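Whiteboard transcription, Tuesday session. T.W. wrote the structure tokens on the left side:
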């Protein structure tokens, strides 16, 4: 069983990765993925959102050609949505499909599709002092290594 303290720490780190802790995002997402794979009280779904294409800015054109990233200025982003029962709270972690490498494509396609609700990608993150964020990350990685008995990358 994964301790509540670890789940809550990674939840905070996940927010920090979208704030001023972006340089540690891959480490945090790696840790999050390892935890998701070992959860016994979680449910995974897939969800998607349609957003304005960043490549062409929504015009559908890039330079003089049609944009290769979208369809008429819009693109669909897919996410693994994991709901985690953490004490009396339900945490929701959205992992971009391309970062949820532990879920084979065939299995991802079998997941129940749920609407995104009011959630949108690129929500503002949490800005915390670098030293505080790093201390939380190191503590979470140490606890995860003990609990999960896996190496958590540095």
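and on the right, the sequence the group agreed on:
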């Amino acid at each position: 069983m994964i301790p509540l303290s670890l789940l809550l720490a990674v939840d905070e780190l996940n927010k920090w990765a979208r704030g001023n802790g972006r340089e540690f995002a891959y480490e945090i997402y790696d840790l999050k993925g390892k935890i998701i794979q070992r959860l016994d009280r979680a449910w995974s779904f897939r969800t998607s959102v349609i957003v304005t294409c960043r490549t062409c800015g929504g015009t559908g054109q890039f330079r003089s050609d049609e944009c290769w990233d979208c369809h008429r200025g819009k693109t669909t982003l897919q996410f693994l949505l994991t709901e985690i029962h953490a004490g009396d709270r339900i945490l929701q972690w959205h992992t971009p499909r391309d970062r949820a490498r532990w879920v084979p494509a065939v299995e991802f396609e079998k997941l129940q599709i749920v609407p995104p609700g009011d959630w949108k990608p690129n929500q503002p993150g949490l800005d915390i002092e670098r030293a505080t964020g790093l201390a939380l990350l190191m503590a979470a990685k140490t606890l995860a290594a003990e609990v999960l008995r896996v190496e958590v990358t540095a």
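Someone added at the bottom: The helical segments are 4-17, 25-38, 105-110, 130-148.
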